[in-house]
Design brief:
- The chain is mainly beta and 141 residues long.
- The protein has 1 helix and 11 strands; from the N terminus they run E-E-E-E-E-E-H-E-E-E-E-E.
- A 4-stranded antiparallel β-sheet has the order 2-11-6-8, with no helix packed on it.
- It starts with a strand and ends in a 27-residue tail after the last strand.
Length: 141
């Protein structure tokens, strides 16, 4: 399987590492944020995913500890149609403290998965299944 990558900024190349199933992405420029700031941190790449696939982007496990930033959408979804030369991937960040993030720092990671299958949405009067007990009901005594 092949993922086409176009570098939109002068960053170190991203690479698949042997120890993990996710691929790290880099900060595309030096970023300085104050506590409470929102910023779309450029990641320096645009990609064309294989046909039928989409990508999930999440912070690296050390990102919050090192930089105090949160991914504002909890998880980033890269739709397969987001594949043009100027469709640079970004990390929408909220800063919980003042921080400087250097260019080329690995701040998030992505993996691809097979996208939504073609499906039909059918409206019904009843699902004909027992109720489980509501959100958060598992393990209730």
């Amino acid at each position: 399987m092949r993922i086409k990558i176009k570098y939109t900024r002068d960053i170190l190349p991203i690479e698949k590492i042997k120890q993990g199933a996710w691929i790290d992405l880099r900060c595309g420029e030096d970023i300085q944020l104050k506590a409470g700031d929102y910023c779309q941190i450029p990641l320096g790449v645009a990609m064309e995913l294989p046909k039928g696939f989409e990508a999930l982007v999440v912070p690296r496990s050390s990102t919050f500890r090192k930089y105090g930033i949160l991914l504002v959408n909890s998880v980033g979804v890269i739709d397969p149609a987001y594949c043009g030369d100027n469709d640079e991937w970004c990390f929408p960040a909220y800063a919980t403290r003042d921080v400087v993030i250097p260019k080329n720092e690995r701040i998030c990671q992505f993996r691809i998965l097979y996208g939504q299958p073609d499906c039909e949405l059918a409206v019904v009067d009843s699902l004909d299944n027992p109720d489980r007990g509501g959100l958060g009901s598992t393990g209730r005594v």
